Amino acid sequence: MPKIRNIVALLLVVGGFWYFYGETYNQFGVEGVFSEIRSDINGIKENPEVIAAVNYASNEIQHWLGELTQSLQENEPQNQNVAEKPQLDAPSEQSFSIHNVELGDDRSEVEQQVGPAKRSTLNEYGIEWVAYHENYQNFFMAAYDEQNKVVGLYTNQDLLASTNGITFKNSRESVLKMTNDPLESIRKGFVSYQIQNNQEYDTFLIDNNYVTIFYDKHEDNSVTAIQIISGELEQKKEKFFTDASAELKEGFEYQLFDLTNAARVNHGLSVLSWEEAVRETARGHSTDMADNNYFSHTNLEGQSPFDRMTADRISYRMAGENLAMGQLSSIFAHEGLMNSLGHRENILQSDFESLAVGVAFNAESRPYYTENFLTK
């Protein structure tokens, strides 16, 4: 919207200049226009304020014309590639399907339907989330077992079909009416892990699968995402926090990046590019928080996010930072950030252009997440 307002304002200014100097431009070009402007100025030499105003205007219109051309060039390609939403069919074997994919489907069948994967990264279950999308449209992730059968699914876009009528149009209240009571804990062996009851998500045991439905507090508690994990896969995960590793760190980073872009596409915003240069800045802050047991945008040396970026020679015109801590995966971290107004505003800031994510783990393998957004 800001770009559209700027373009409209610019067209009004250009229209005014064209009224006075259009004929001159057609005959003599830009140099002729500037020559006539200078001639007009010479005719009113007794008024220095008018001279200054016209000089400023002549410089500004040349600058704005350049910006208009660039803006139109940038916006034109984005409006040409709108992916068609798939026709969603009712699931045949399970209670839920995502992009017409169900738990138990073979990977070859999935990719025959939706195309090759865009990214594969390690997740907290010790296998990979495989991301599929068309420039983050029709985005979902699938996880496969050793036999290449689907054992996990996730999406934060309207790709859900179900046999019980749950869709992304439902509110939490209606979901609870269509299901059994949500789980309060998940038992693994002799340990029972409590499920956080903050009304931002509910986890259900359906068809022996663990189905977590996330809600958007800022959109009338409507369904905003769903994760489906097979009972067998969930039981293989013995601990609440998965043991830290370099591969899991990178997996969480790229997963949070992809989830952020999928959310932006949901709201009609541009896709952010990956800003590799700032990943180490983000990782450094996550590591500092994990190692020193604090959680704040300001580090123990009093540096703000902007101080840290400047110290790392990151140039920017606009920047922002999101933090999360203690969520067991990037999915839960992202959904929590979307329900926090200040963090949500960063994720949905239309003027941001790029993003990098840095993750670190403390001694108990508790993850710390830092997102750094930039506009250069």
Automatic annotation (TrEMBL):
Signal peptide position in this chain? none
> Gene3D superfamilies from the entry?
CAP (3.40.33.10)
One of its Pfam families is CAP
Q: What InterPro entries does its record include?
A: CAP_assoc (IPR029410), CAP_dom (IPR014044), CAP_sf (IPR035940)
Instruction: Give the PANTHER family listed for this entry.
Output: SCP DOMAIN-CONTAINING PROTEIN
Q: Superkingdom of the source? A: Bacteria
Full protein name: CAP domain-containing protein
Which residue numbers delimit the SCP domain? 257-370
Fetch the CDD domains from UniProt: CAP_bacterial (cd05379)
Give the species this sequence originates from. Metabacillus rhizolycopersici
Residues forming the CAP-associated domain are 103-239
Tell me the SUPFAM superfamilies matching this sequence: PR-1-like
